[in-house]
Automatic annotation (TrEMBL):
Top-level taxon in the UniProt lineage: Bacteria
Annotated source species: Streptomyces caledonius
Pfam families tied to this protein: EF-hand_7
InterPro entries given in the database record: EF-hand-dom_pair, EF_Hand_1_Ca_BS, EF_hand_dom, EF_hand_pair_protein_CML-like
SMART domains, sorted: EFh
Keyword Metal-binding: yes
Name under which the protein is recorded: EF-hand domain-containing protein
EF-hand domain mapped to chain residues: 2-37
Keywords noted in UniProt: Metal-binding, Repeat
Length: 70
């Protein structure tokens, strides 16, 4: 099981605008900032979609946390 405080810190790196959700664009930009320029738009869309439990196209912290604890 992941540490929730570490997970919140990591989630915050992706949630650039601080609205509580990570978009595919935010995910792509964060990955590039962390040194992975190979995450394309379609890859980012697929990653968000795979973890997006409610199908709204956004990754909430609860969805992120749940994906860490699978």
């Amino acid at each position: 099981m992941a540490d929730i405080e570490s997970a919140r810190t990591t989630f915050g790196k992706f949630d650039v605008n601080g609205d509580g959700f990570v978009t595919a664009d935010e995910f792509k930009a964060a990955m590039a900032a962390m040194g992975d320029p190979f995450v394309t738009g379609p890859v980012a869309d697929a990653v968000i979609a795979a973890k997006d439990a409610d199908g709204d196209g956004l990754l909430s912290f609860d969805e992120f946390w749940a994906s860490l604890n699978k």
